[in-house]
Amino acid sequence: MLLVAPAVLLLVLFTFAPAVYAFVLSVLKVQVTGGLLGTSTAQVFAGFENYVDTLADPEFWDSLGRMLIIAVIGVPATLFFATLFALCLDANRARLTGIWRLAIFLPYAVPGVIASLLWGFLYLPATSPIGGQFIDYFGNTGIFFAVANVATWGVIGFNMVVLFTAVRAIPKEIFDAAQIDGASELQIALRIKLPMIAPALSMVALFSVIGALQLFNEPTTLKPLTNAISSTWVPLMRVYSDAFVNNNIYGGAASAFTLLVMTVAATVLVNVIGNRISKRSAR
Amino acid sequence: MTRRTRSLLGAVAAVTVAAAALTGCSSGNNSTDSASSGGVVHLTFTNWDNGMQTLVNTWNKENPKIQVKLIKPSGTGYTLYNKLITDNSAGTNPDLTEVEYQALPMMVSNKVVVPIDKYVTNLSNFSKSTLSQVQFEGKTYGVPQNVCPLVFFYRKDLLAKDGITTPPATWDEFAKDAAIVHKANPKQYLMNFDASSPEWFAGLAQQAGANWWTTSGDTWSVNIDDAATQKVASYWQNLLDQGVIAPGPSWSTQWNTDMNSGNILGWVSGQWAPNQLPTIAPDTAGDWVAAPVPAWTAGDQTIGTWGGEVEAVTANSKHPAEAAKFANWMNNTKEGINLLIKNVQVFPAAQKYQSLPALQTPPPFMKNQPDYNTLMKQLASNVRGFDIWGPNANITFNSYSDAFGKAVQNHTSFVDALKTVQTDTVSDMKKTGYKVK
């Protein structure tokens, strides 16, 4: 009991306390009374007014929808490419794997804001070397792929390393046995390696889903470049713009708390599904 | 000068500020605690203008008892204002800050700035219309710095190639010129419609005769979707529908590149543009010419504004008298204004000093137009603003960017977008508790 005390203390201080504070803010509001410019402005109790405002706002649900679209594009892409890279690097014939591993991991080391700036240059017609003159990367459909691409590009490397480590942890004897049985490199990858890294895969999926919920840097940095991204384009941008542009920290807190609940629910859900899958494959 | 450097850097800064505000740390801005030591008063001053340091240095040399430290804010415009509001409750604001006119009511209603009537007595150097921007309910909040009329900047060399030798005098001519330019070279546009700059659109509405906010007693009227503003909105939508102006936002990489390479030939901007153009279109110094913004009816000289700012003393300041003294020196004395003209390229708000010899020299970027400031003086005298900026102009502006951005993107009605802005503004005011008619 005593041994976990420091951990519990830190958890309370840095996780629960801010959440509680956000909750307290979310049930308050500013009320202006008297005078043209509200010379007596006070913080008053608002009950669940801010939550009602958030949940009744179609723009909130739209922003969730846009986030989901990006998740639907980005999460499978992340999983697919991370797995593909990991399996390719582990293949017997792969050479210079150290260098390639580093190269694939490198984008993860680039801060999201900088990555978005770089991709912005690549997308814009005036500066694009990848066909921005012909492809409308900031069109109503293109924008989802443009944002998902930046987000995915940044995290594939990290996820690849996780999966690669899992592949490496599989005892080599299993592959030798399979080879003697006549299995090809591809069959080994698909029938042996893939099922055996299922737990790692479900963890990577969890990271990706949480990453999608936290989508903020990429659209925020791309926003000044295009009319396609509004200030409430994804939920976190809405929280930011409520709190720091519209000066409505209380509404922002309510949206943030609503999102927190959703994030926890999504995390639990993905975890349960992931556990089922890995249990089934372990059988 | 107004700086809505809605650039990429701005976005980076925004994220940084968010982080700083969330964790409640406002490094660098809290120095009032270690205020007076040995009779010397130390002031902190937040300002984002290029060239302001020279002015502060001169003051510090001449006033050993009042030492000012200049702080560059991590974000400009509303990023800064919201930080000021947040830091106000923490008591960590600088003594003095720059605030654009349109944000001052918001600063007053959030009690971020204090009246300076007690400390500054020679405000009669300013015109009534300038003072109306900083005086509310009989109190003066800060010393006005500049007047920023809208100006039409254009590439004389490139327009001449298309046979356009005089700048458009009316908006009808502007529309014709836009068509000529785009027809001669499909890559070129006379201008872009800037859905990301609400102050720009507000300035155009001012010129057309709109009055977005009016008051009677302590009751507000909001008229953002009035006939005048609808006229402006429909005009630009028509140009966009014809495809003769570019749809992208200003202050983006794309726009900078187009401005620099000559794909965008004009810019309806503020008086402060020559201080910004060197970063936007560095290769084009001396190629731009300033002209009055086109009029709705030939001969009408009414002009709207874009930006302009006031130096205000904060509620957190422990030395408001000294802070006000510095603000007044900077904006209301010959020496201060001379330095402002030379280093920050302002057109001063103080009428008494609008004919200083320093104004006979154009800004370096406009070196081909020696009478640049004569034009500014003429435009400044024809400026028409709103009666007052709303206490939640930030909501209005954010709503404009979202609604008009969306309308440009989806080719939907600008007039409907205007209605959204009106609704957002009014409902926020009502929710906060302002009396709205």
Commentary on this structure:
The complex is a heterodimer of chains A (283) and B (437). Chain A is mainly alpha-helical and 283 residues long. Chain A is built from twelve helices and two strands; from the N terminus they run H-E-E-H-H-H-H-H-H-H-H-H-H-H. In chain A, strands 1-2 form a two-stranded antiparallel sheet. The radius of gyration of chain A is 23 Å and the shape is globular. The two termini of chain A are 36 Å apart. Chain B has 16 helices and 13 strands. In chain B, helix 2 (52-62) links the parallel strand 1 (41-46) and strand 2 (66-71). Chains A and B meet through strand 1, helix 5, helix 10 and helix 11 of A and helix 1, helix 3, helix 4, helix 10 and helix 15 of B. Chain B: It comes from Humibacter ginsenosidimutans. Chain B: It holds the Pfam family SBP_bac_1. Chain B: This is Sugar ABC transporter substrate-binding protein.
Total helical segments of chain A? 12
Q: In CATH, what is the class of the largest domain in chain B?
A: Alpha Beta
Low-confidence stretches of chain B: 1-36
Q: Into which percentage range does the β-strand content of chain B fall?
A: 5-15%
**Based on the structure given, which CATH architecture of the largest domain in chain B is correct?**
3-Layer(aba) Sandwich
Q: Number of domains in the coordinates of chain B?
A: 2
| Computed structural class of chain B | alpha/beta
User: What is the CA-based Rg of chain A, rounded?
Assistant: 23 Å
Helical percentage of chain A: over 70%
